[in-house]
Design goal:
The chain has helices at 42-49, 70-111, 115-148, 153-178, 183-202, 207-221, 224-233, 238-266, 284-291, 294-304, 310-315, 319-336, 355-364, 369-390, 394-435, 547-573, 575-591, 599-627, 630-657, 664-681; strands spanning 24-26, 32-34, 274-276, 280-282, 346-349, 438-441, 444-446, 449-450, 454-460, 463-465, 468-480, 483-485, 488-495, 498-500, 503-505, 508-510, 519-520, 523-525, 528-530, 715-717. Strands 6, 8, 9, 11, 13, 14, 16, 17 and 19 form a nine-stranded parallel sheet that branches. Strands 7-10-12-15-18 form a five-stranded parallel sheet, with no helix packed on it. It has a two-stranded antiparallel sheet with strand order 1-2. The radius of gyration is 37 Å and the shape is elongated. The chain has 718 residues and is α/β, with parallel strands linked by helices. Strand 1 and strand 2 form a beta hairpin.
Length: 718
């Protein structure tokens, strides 16, 4: 009897159990594979029609002959076909991974470098300039604000600390969010927050409100640096990245120059201020804060007209938007160069979606509005935290640790000495002023009318009987263990004036600012205070010491040569040599501070230190952008910038605590930190020839669960 399954039995060759492969074909998906078995015949189709029927006790006749069952043959065929597809997809995907960086670089080269990058450079430069301005604002307004709002020394320290803490938090938060929300959107948020709260701080009359507004402003502008460098780098070609990112660093210097110059011209002069009653006052330092908003405002207007980073859009599967932006960059540049006929050659961009993207889309179409909002923001927060944790991945762990240490060492020394320089100059001025102090011992003055100012004087164990102090200024005057009997004080303006262990009998104070805090351990008998000027009051005839503004201005100007040289040689020498050489040179410069015994030599050493160290800052910012993949670049830069702010807080506190005690310890700490960071920088990988858009294992879309059915490359060019 003829076997009904004989057409399904493979033809045996020379060896038993071996099958002859006689046909090659390709599956319906277009992938080549070898057919392990002959084509299906009509009987095979009939077998399919009866599949699943109960055969009862019917026994397959070929079972004892060692012949495979037709169902097993079909299952094996399907398994082989699926395995072939899977291998083809994985191979195509691996090719895409290898080609993606080069493909994106090719597109940027095709787009060219021209008007678009120049416009973006100016806009992002203004945003960076706004960060530089905000770094100086508090220090410049504090000498005036402390008088206007009666800020104590402890409160002054709290203000400076909170501003740095807010910038630290802003760098962490906005750096991470820029990898999920977008560079442009986050930069708009950052600048808007800074502008709004800086404007409100201009009119804050109480110290509490002023502190809150400056904290919020710092939280906003603190995120600008991670976003700006990431945003600009993603529109640059490899060979132009180091140089143009270094030129961008110059805007931070311009922010310092702008802040110093405007402070020099506005803050010292109070006469044009105004007051509304006794509660609302608007003086020069408030106008200065208002003027400092202009760079952020100009940057915000410019960013509104800039497109999102195409690289970010590709990372988030928004390929159509990315294609339009890349075409805009291409057309803008080539039209400006007089070649409008050049055509954008990219024809197709395709990126797969991650499971998280699909989950968000599903949840966005279901549930209430609050549930959708919760799902979106919870998932986004999880993604940000996942990005932060993934920075410690094995392939980046050692390099990331080196970068953190180098950023810390650089910021610790730079910001620590940045506080030490002006404080040391103030201390030298104080010592010089104190050396000219006049001391009066056991003087007795009766029936005398003091109608001249008392400046930089100490009166010990004096007696003042029936004397009048009228319409005068007392500046840095101290009365110790003295007696005032039947005296009259009227219209007195005092600065740093105190009465210690004095006795006052039958004395009248009329319309003076001499109040409780001016009298320490004094005995008062029948003493009257009429119309006292409680609190702190600005003296409209007094001007702040402009030396501090001049020193800051010169320090900011001194970094110009270092900025220019680092930009010209960043791609020629490499990032590592620039960073290491600059930090070691700065360490040598810090030792020269031991030879500074005057204000002039200290200012010269400060300018030299800033000029050398700025190259290290530029190199650190460039290599931090290039070392991390696009999907994590904003997060990584935000973490590094937060480390920098943390080091600045520690350095400022430590260096300031040694003012007037010794200068050896601060100089030694700065030297040790710079040498440590400079030597460690030589261990970093050179990135000037690296296509930094992806890093191995970093693509979020390459999970097996998200393998696309279409292996079309991400970027296809004609």
């Amino acid at each position: 009897m003829e076997d009904p399954y004989q057409n399904n039995v493979p033809q045996q060759g020379g060896d038993a159990g071996q099958y002859a492969y006689t046909q090659e074909g390709s599956g319906p998906d277009g992938y080549p594979y070898q057919t392990d078995f002959p084509p299906r015949e009509e009987d095979d189709a009939a077998s399919d029609a009866t599949e699943g029927h109960d055969e009862g006790e019917q026994m397959y006749e070929g079972e004892y002959q060692g012949i495979p069952h037709p169902d097993e043959i079909k299952a094996a065929r399907r398994a082989a076909r699926m395995e072939a597809r899977k291998k083809a997809r994985l191979a195509a995907q691996q090719d895409d991974e290898d080609d993606l960086p080069d493909q994106y670089e090719n597109i940027m080269e095709d787009c060219g470098h021209g008007r678009f990058q120049a416009t973006l450079f100016a806009v992002l430069g203004l945003a960076l300039m706004a960060d530089g301005v905000d770094s100086f604002v508090v220090g410049f307004v504090l000498p005036s604000a402390e008088k206007d709002m009666c800020i104590s020394n402890a409160d002054k320290g709290m203000l400076g600390l909170l501003v740095y803490v807010s910038m630290l938090a802003g760098a962490l938060v906005w750096g991470g969010l820029s990898d999920k929300l977008g560079r442009r959107k986050c930069l708009i948020y950052v600048l808007s927050i800074d502008i709004i709260f800086s404007f409100l701080s201009c009119f804050a009359q109480g110290y509490g409100f002023f502190l809150f507004f400056r904290f919020c402003s710092g939280f906003g502008i603190g995120g600008s640096i991670p976003i700006v460098y990431t945003y600009f780098a993603e529109f640059l070609q490899i060979e132009k990245r180091g140089e143009h990112l270094s030129w961008l660093c110059m805007f931070w210097m311009l922010g310092g120059l702008y802040a110093s110059f405007t402070a020099w011209g506005i803050i010292p002069h109070y006469g044009w201020g105004f007051a509304i009653g006794t509660e609302v006052q608007f003086h020069g330092w408030r106008a200065y804060i208002l003027v400092c908003i202009f760079p952020a405002l100009a940057a915000l207007v410019g960013v509104v007209y800039m497109p999102e980073s195409a690289r970010f859009l590709l990372e988030n599967a928004r390929h159509d938007e990315a294609w339009m932006i890349l075409r805009q960059v291409h057309d803008t540049n080539w039209k400006a160069k007089g070649e409008p006929e050049r055509v954008f050659t990219v024809t197709h961009i395709k990126t797969p979606q991650t499971q998280e993207d699909e989950f968000i889309e599903i949840q966005s179409e279901t549930g209430t509005a609050f549930q959708r909002w919760t799902v979106r923001h919870t998932t986004m927060l999880q993604q940000v935290m996942s990005n932060v944790m993934s920075l410690s991945a094995a392939e980046l762990r050692l390099q990331g640790l080196f970068l953190v240490i180098i950023w810390f060492c650089m910021a610790f020394s730079y910001h620590g000495l940045g506080v030490w320089f002006p404080d040391m100059i103030k201390y030298m001025q104080y010592e010089e002023y104190e050396s000219k102090e006049r001391v009066f011992h056991r003087e007795r003055v009766e029936h005398f009318h003091f109608n001249f100012s008392l400046v930089n004087q100490v009166h010990r164990e004096g007696e003042y009987i029936h004397d009048k102090f009228m319409d005068i200024e007392m500046k840095s005057v101290k009365f110790e263990d003295s007696l005032f009997e039947n005296c009259y004080f009227e219209d007195i303006k005092s600065t740093n004036t105190f009465f210690e262990n004095c006795t006052l009998k039958n004395t009248v104070f009329y319309n003076t600012d001499l109040w409780e805090e001016k009298f320490k351990d004094c005995r008062m008998e029948n003493t009257t205070f009429l119309h006292p000027k409680k609190g702190c009051h600005l003296n409209f005839q007094e001007e702040n010491d402009i030396v501090i503004y001049m020193v800051s201005f010169l320090g900011s100007l001194a970094v110009l040569p270092g900025n220019i040289l680092s930009a010209l040689f960043m791609d020629k020498l490499g990032r590592i040599k620039i960073i290491g050489g600059s930090m070691l040179g700065s360490a040598a410069c810090s030792f020269l501070l031991l030879l500074c015994f005057s204000q002039g030599t200290l200012v010269c050493c400060q300018c030299l230190f800033y000029a050398i160290s700025v190259a290290a800052w530029n190199g650190l910012q460039v290599i931090s952008v290039e070392l991390y993949p696009s999907a994590k670049r904003g997060t990584a830069f935000g973490v590094l910038n937060a480390v920098s702010k943390f080091a600045a807080i520690i350095g400022s506190f430590i260096f300031a605590s040694f003012i007037g005690i010794t200068k050896i310890i601060p100089i030694f700490l700065a030297f040790a930190a710079l040498v440590c960071g400079g030597l460690l920088a030589l261990k970093l990988p050179e990135t000037r020839e690296k296509s930094c858009w992806y890093h191995q294992g970093s693509r979020p879309h390459n999970t097996p669960e998200a393998i696309p059915t279409d292996p079309t490359p991400l970027l296809v060019q004609r």
